[in-house]
Write a structure and sequence with these properties.
Blueprint lengths: L23 E21 L2 E16 L9 E2 L4 E2 L7 E8 L12 H17 L4 E2 L1 H7 L7 H18 L4 H5 L5 E3 L2 E3 L5 H15 L4 E4 L6 H11 L5 E4 L9 H10 L7 E2 L7 H8 L6 E3 L6 H10 L4 E4 L1 H4 L2 H13 L4 E3 L6 H11 L13 H4 L14 E3 L19 E6 L1
Parallel strand pairs: 8-9, 9-10, 10-11, 11-12, 12-13, 13-14
Antiparallel strand pairs: 1-2, 1-6, 1-16, 2-5, 3-4, 7-15
Helix pairs in contact: 1-3, 2-3, 5-6, 9-11
This protein binds N-acetyl naphthylalanine and magnesium ion.
């Protein structure tokens, strides 16, 4: 057991029984950036996206004792990539949107902070690095959790590939497939198009539907969905912080949504408005779920103690990576607060990590990790397919997916270290 990596703590405290992971010798770190068109525009209360500005972190490690099976990917039939001349690559997706519309984080900012601050601090003492070191060596830096998460996940993926172990196994996954739902944007065509899209996703087999709402597109479309698709439709809504707790019309709309038998109401108010969430959560029968408000395990504990939420959406990027995601899961489990795995329009790289997380104990509601074809004509990796409302958890080394080399042909690669 390497002294620097005690059992079960290699980027994944909170997991029990996972053997420790050896750190890797970092040979290079690159940012890989490309634009991918979405299959249909995705509109939320904060704006309309028709393409995804994708940013990946690639950590290349020197392999001194290559594992025998560590370099093929049974899920995709591809090699794990980057493994030549005694090297292997780990991948992490930085889920920042191009603009600071979901939170303060955005892709140019993430790329800059990775290049100028996070990567230098990570390798400054020495180039022997494990996923845990991302938290400890970057502890003096504030924020930028999505950038941090991408770096942590890339290091963890490289370590796991070197050890020929899957992320899901490392985390102690309790299921080999994950029940999934779909997040449906506000359609250009309004309510009729929403009904049509939701019916289409149900035909594909999605187990629940999450509808994006904003003031002016809320009660009428959601009521219509209930009328057309019936009381059995597993339906929830996400406001992305668009409602003002001081606005009577906004509150009247939320009160009306409370009559529609929703599984949950996600983030009606601003990220910092815990007291407003608590004041209204106590009146509503619909459980309030927080997304943007929860950055770490302490936020989750505070929100639960205040009565500001009954359910927590966990996203690897928003909380700074796997270690913190598992801590939040543990805080919620101790308080019997259900959690589920959210999504940020990830490519197959981020989707693979989400599935491993969602396969762990405590993730009891369907994930927002939809199939690849919900977002992409062609995913960056071997695609994820919907099977009876579930996605299979990758079983290959690390996250179990790599970007297809041909898909990266037009990508911009910036070497941060090498
Ligand atoms: C949420 N995700 O749960 C987010 C919001 C979101 C699947 O609903 C570009 C980058 C566009 C990140 C659109 C889903 C995005 C984005 C929506 C995140 O709140
Ligand atoms: Mg959300």
């Amino acid at each position: 057991m390497p002294a620097r990596e005690p059992p079960g703590t290699s980027g994944a405290p909170g997991t029990s029984g996972a053997p420790g992971l050896a750190p890797i010798e970092v040979a290079a770190i690159d940012l890989v950036r490309l634009s991918m068109p979405l299959v249909r525009p995705f509109t939320t209360s904060f704006g309309r996206q028709s393409e995804r500005d994708v940013l990946l972190v690639r950590v290349t490690g020197d392999v001194t004792a290559p594992g025998s099976g560590g370099f093929t990917d049974p899920d995709s039939g591809e090699g794990s990539g980057g493994h030549r001349d005694g090297q292997l690559a780990g991948w992490g997706e930085c889920v920042t949107p191009a603009a600071p519309v979901y939170s303060e984080e955005f892709t140019d900012g993430a790329a800059l902070v990775l290049r100028e601050h996070l990567v230098p601090a990570l390798v400054r003492p020495d180039r022997t690095v494990g996923a845990r070191d991302v938290a400890t060596r970057l502890a003096h830096l504030h924020g930028h959790r999505m950038a941090r998460a991408a770096l942590e996940l890339a290091v963890l993926d490289a370590q796991l590939r070197a050890a020929d172990r899957s992320l899901a196994r490392h985390l102690g996954a309790v299921r080999d497939r994950v029940p999934v739902g779909v997040s449906v944007g506000i359609p250009d065509g309004g309510t009729p198009e929403l009904v049509e899209q939701v019916a289409g996703y149900l035909d594909e087999g999605y187990l629940r539907v999450k509808v994006k709402i904003r003031p002016g597109f809320d009660v009428a479309p959601v009521t219509r969905l209930r009328e057309v698709l019936g009381p059995d439709l597993a339906l929830q809504v996400d406001a992305n912080a668009a409602y003002d707790p001081e606005d009577r019309q906004h509150l009247a709309a939320l009160d009306a949504l409370d009559e529609l038998d929703l599984i949950l109401l996600e983030q009606p108010f601003g990220a910092a408005r815990l007291r407003a969430h608590a004041q209204h959560a106590v009146r509503w029968r619909t459980p309030v779920c927080l997304d943007e408000s929860i950055h770490d395990a302490a936020d989750a504990a505070d929100a639960i103690a205040l009565g500001a939420c009954h359910i927590v959406n966990i996203k690897l990027g928003r909380v700074g990576g796997m270690a913190e995601a598992l801590r939040i899961r543990d805080v919620c489990r101790a308080a019997t607060v259900p959690v589920w795995c959210g999504g940020m329009l990830e490519t197959g790289v981020g989707r693979a990590a989400n599935l491993a997380l969602a396969a762990t104990d405590g993730f009891d509601l369907p994930a927002d990790t939809s199939a690849s074809d919900r977002y992409w004509h062609e995913d960056l990796t071997a695609p994820f397919h919907l099977d009876d409302g579930h996605l299979a958890v990758p079983t290959g080394p690390g996250i179990g997916r790599i970007p297809r080399p041909d898909a990266l042909e037009g990508a911009e690669v910036v070497r941060l270290l090498g």
